[in-house]
Amino acid sequence: MKITDIRATTVAVPLEAPLLHSNGAHWGRFVRTIVEVEADNGLVGLGEMGGGGQSAEDAFRALAPYLEGHDPFELEALRFKIANPTASLYNNRTQMLAAIEFACLDLVGKHLGVPVHDLLGGRVRDSVPFASYLFYRYPGADGRTPEVRTPEQLVAHARDLKERHGFTVHKLKGGVFPPAYELECYKALAEAFPGDRLRYDPNAVLSLDEGLRFAKAIEHLNNDYLEDPVWGLEGLRLVRERTPTPLATNTVVVNFEQLATNVLHRSVDVVLLDTTFWGGIRACVKAAGICDTFQLGVSVHSSGELGIQLATMLHLGAVLPNLTYAADAHYHHLAGDVIEGGPFQYADGRIAVPSGPGLGVTLDRDKVAEYAELYRELGGYPYDRDPGRPGWYPLVPNERWADPETPLAAL
Description:
Its EC number is 4.2.1.40. The chain is of the alpha/beta class. It contains 14 helices and 14 strands. The strands form four sheets. It has a seven-stranded parallel sheet. Helix 7 packs across helix 8 (about 180-190). About 50% of the residues are buried. The model has no long low-confidence stretch (mean pLDDT about 95).
């Protein structure tokens, strides 16, 4: 089996409502690039990458000479062809490599008639647990999706998600409002769901003093971990030394050099593995093995996935014996998807691991065309800007908080 072609299509898939985070917002849609790698036996493998547009599509097309004639079984050779570690100092193709690796694993699985998790050593679980992943948000354009700003609204949103999807772990994406206010919101979740687990993630925008204050204030709660309260391995180490609450990161342990540093000088207790950030599923499996050896916890990070990347997260979660924390996913905030059969479904807070060949998903061509047209109509958006606060941008550590007393108007 040899690769003959690569195609890339950028899509915009609507969200139920615009989601706020510490650096800006998701502006009511996810912009993703769908990658198709075709082989000489007629099979097509699927990949996915965050962001997109003409430049991303051109960048993938430019890799055609690297891929034509390549055997998709030869994944280590593929890694050096596309993302040689020294050449990548200049071209930074890690996320592109990930999308193409997804597609090659999909091709190999389809060719052999086995699911990707069988190629990775075999599954140890049939479904993967997920956290609720709560965001402060603007009202939805449909007029039916309310804002989430107050503690009461946050609890109501979490309760709705718990009733619909069965979540028993709740993650609050913070760093939007002043830390003391978000602490009130977090405590409200703990009071409303006393038997459930909690985690808080302000995306590293708290100062060291604020991070320590927040960590101390939640020590008595039922926490999974405190994720990226401050920026950097050294900042995290200083917080970790002063709290019994486990610390997690997806920002500063995203490659093997950083993982080695964290093993030698422990700054975090839990590493959130992202199939895109790490350059593919196989890299995440390798990193999870290192974490297991040195007794670091692991979870699965979400970078704003559609069904293709969610499938990679499910196959990853299926094969990790040491996945002891529920995975993250933005997925339930989507109003649609590009895969046949519609979005994956949650049951008791879990999603079943696909059992079909390859990744186990198939493109819905009509949906791809619809969302590609929506992208052409709306274009991209700046991830690090908030459409409700023109001219605003965050600092790290931040001091430019949104006003929690001001209702969030529909955009």
